[in-house]
User: What shape does this take?
Amino acid sequence: MSFLQHDVPLSWYLLLSAVLFSLGVVGFLIKRNLITVFMSIELMLNAVNLSFVTFAYQWHEVRGQIFVFFVMMVAAAEAAVGLAIIIAVFRARSTLAVDRIDLMKL
Amino acid sequence: MNESAYLWLIPLFPFLGFLLNGILGSRLPRRLVSAIGVLAPLASLALVLSDFGATVISAASNCHGCGQVTALALPAAESLSYPWLAIGALRVDFTFVLDQLSAVMLLVIMGVGFLIHVYSVGYMKDEPGYARYFSFLNLFLFFMSVLVLAGNFLLMFVGWEGVGLASYLLIGFWFQKNSAADAGKKAFIVNRIGDFGFLIGIFLVLSTFGTLSFADIAVKLALAPGWQGMVLTVICICLLVGAAGKSAQLPLYIWLPDAMEGPTPVSALIHAATMVTAGVYMIARTHLLFDRAPVALWTVAIVGAATALFAATIALVQNDIKRVLAYSTISQLGYMFLACGVAAYSAAIFHLVMHAFFKALLFLAAGSVIHAMGGEQDLRKMGGLRTKLPVTFWTMTAAVFAIAGFPPFAGFFSKDAILYAAFLDGTGGKLLWFVSLVTALLTSFYMFRLWYLTFMGEPRSETSHHHATPLSMLVPLVILAVLSVCGGWIGLDRFSAYLAPAAAAHRPMPEGNPGLEFILSIAAVLVALEGWLIADKYYRRKTERPAQLAAALPTGYKILSNKYYVDEIYGAVIVKPLLAFSQYVLGWVVDTAILGGLAWLLAGVASLTGMILQRWQSGNLRSYAAWLAAGAAAVLLFLLLTGSPHAWSLPFFHSETIFKVSHITVIQTGQAGH
Assistant: This one.
């Protein structure tokens, strides 16, 4: 249990989290496929989850872990709704390229 | 003062009638509409009557003291008051006062009003706007009773404006007709000019006395017995302007003849019997001010006498039956003003009441004639109606004799009282008396002219459809005829004794003597007789004479039949320049150039900004995301640069406590770990 604290410094976790988050942001910005964009969002959420857990462990705080549960819940709901929207968009447009879905309506 | 809880019921009934008929009327059966419309004034009339009886009794029991009414005046019989406005030092109460003056007025308003409502049931039978008509009529009664019951200037002004509104609505009742709509507007606008004067007067009263309540003003005046200043004169002149607007006096009388565009019962109720008397009532109500302003009072007398003569001359040659009556109304109102001007307020109110009887009767009878003629109003096309409309003929005859001033009809007593009061009022009074005597001659002439042209001789046009006059129209005629005959028998002495607490002048009145009064009334009757004889000669025996006379004096006839070109002069001097100013200066420069330009400028700025900003709203998901990321980055950067720990702190995460707690836990875990 305590080997984490001794062997892997706190900053590594945070660094990993930051890298994952940045990957998410970049993916969100540059990818054209809507599903990939969606996955980038999940990546960002999980990056944040990681830093939450890290701090919770570091400071022996249960609140950070509770937040993670909230975020996971939201992510699950978002996945359900988002995928439904993506299917609807694909049915209507036969494409998932974000550049071409810019009318703010189906 | 007695506090009375039910005083507010008097205006309430007509108001309820207005609401019921106004909101639901078009869906109710006509019988119910008429029942609501007629019962509303009847209920109020019953209330006033019960109260009137009480005041008559108390007046009779107190009458030993009638001679020594204190200068405090306005001993209210009943009053009702709630705080209404309190702005700084100004306090205006919602006060209703029922004293002798307002009781008499209310009796006339509700009594004559009730009869006219009954008459309207028959007269307006086939109108599409039946419910609207009755709701407006009730609205008028509501505002009129507010005006009369008001215990201060402000509340009176509410009623004052309200009757103006009701009058506008009723004159323009047939709003599909352009002339009716225009007449309504004219009445309203001319009244507004008078109201402007009235408002200025109210403001002056407020700044001079610090209160608007009639009773408080009376107290303040009583505390300063010698006070007679310029301010009071100016106040009274302003009030006179208001009264002249509402009561159709020179120079603001022009709306009344045009008001005849409304239905005839409306002319009877509003433009003869009640609303136009509001100005006379207002002067009588504020007579304590006028008593202290001799110049203003003198102006009132001159305006009244001039109007009486002026309108009577116009009435000589009018051919529309309602217009003759309209000008005669103006002329009779002039008599009332004259009486007010010589401080004979009781005589003015006496004539007001009598005039309400016979003028309402004249208009209703004229309505019955018009009804029978199928809408024809031109006297030249009537004639010979005596046998066809016997009831109308006899009742109208009573009214004609009353207005001409023959004893023992109502008009004789009241007109006589005014002539006598004018004669007593100094040297100038003799002139006023002479003017009103000439007016009496003219009045008698034009009324008998109308009488001959309508009822005597042979029919001058084919009237195919003679409507039968329904009973609901005949009964009011008969009642009013009885009042026109007998109303004057009350006698001025008894009337003014009753009215004395509210309307006795507080200034030295000239001594009269019965012999002089008798001689003067003989003169008045002779003059009236003369008028009748001339009319008889011209319109019965030698019917070709009027045309000859008109041909002999073309200029005079033209001036009279065109009503002295007053409308044209007002049009050229006031309306045209005003219109030009409105169109060119206000319309083009102010509205189009300045205001329009500003609006264009604002719109231009907004659309320009919009054109720039709309590029953001591309709909492109990635551009939104980029802006979002850029925004988040900017916020983060800002926090890092300004970065004290407090900048990070949120209410939920109190950083210091977290820091402390975590510090301790770290130490503890550290110890545990060792």
